[in-house]
Amino acid sequence: MNLDEIKRILEMAREHSLSELEIEQQGIRLRIKRDGGRGSASVIAAAAEPTEVQPDTDAEDVIEVAVVKSPIVGTFYRSPDPNARPFVESGDTVRRGQVLCIIEAMKLMNEIDSEVDGEIVEVFVENGQPVQYGDQLFAIRPRQAG
């Protein structure tokens, strides 16, 4: 599902005065919900599951990381506004549910949250860069329990 398809779906929902619509296609779930008579709409895309990545090293040197991928197509922003500090930097400790970035899609700001507690190991995307569904955004080294 690309941005043009999402725009077409939004136009159709608006044209037919649908108050709520949910579509699942190719592993992407898109939910559109219009707010009563105010004409505003929110678009919610299912978040990508973190995946385990193992570098090519000896077994004892393996570091497992959770890779946060983009759940939608849009523009990546590291901070809530141009003059604010980034939500996170490499080396920062994050908690599950903490906002990592914003992806703007069709004038809607979608907060992307951490799925794990851990440390930001790498930020893959530059501020203001367009991202596609499934693009890697962050690598997080999960905190070990105990």
Question: What are its keywords?
Answer:
146 residues; mainly beta; OB fold (Dihydrolipoamide Acetyltransferase, E2P); 2 domains; 5-stranded antiparallel β-sheet; 1 helix; 12 strands; elongated
Write the layout of secondary structure elements.
Layout: H1 3-15, E1 20-25, E2 28-35, E3 40-45, E4 51-53, E5 65-69, E6 74-77, E7 93-94, E8 99-105, E9 108-113, E10 118-123, E11 130-131, E12 136-142
Antiparallel strand pairs: 1-2, 2-3, 4-5, 5-12, 6-8, 6-11, 7-10, 8-9, 10-12
Rg, Å, rounded: 17 Å
> Helix segment count?
1
| Intertermini distance | 41 Å
| Coarse morphology | elongated
In what order do the strands lie side by side in the largest sheet? 4-5-12-10-7
Annotated CATH homologous superfamily of the largest domain: RNA polymerase II/Efflux pump adaptor protein, barrel-sandwich hybrid domain
Helix content: under 10%
Assign the CATH topology of the largest domain: OB fold (Dihydrolipoamide Acetyltransferase, E2P)
- What is the makeup of the main sheet? 5 strands, antiparallel
Number of domains: 2
Strand content: 35-45%
Write the CATH architecture name of the largest domain. Beta Barrel
List unreliable stretches of 5+ residues. Answer: 37-42, 46-61
Can you tell me the CATH class of the largest domain? Mainly Beta
Helices and strands, in order, run as HEEEEEEEEEEEE
Structural class: mainly beta
Mean pLDDT: 78
Total number of β-strand segments? 12
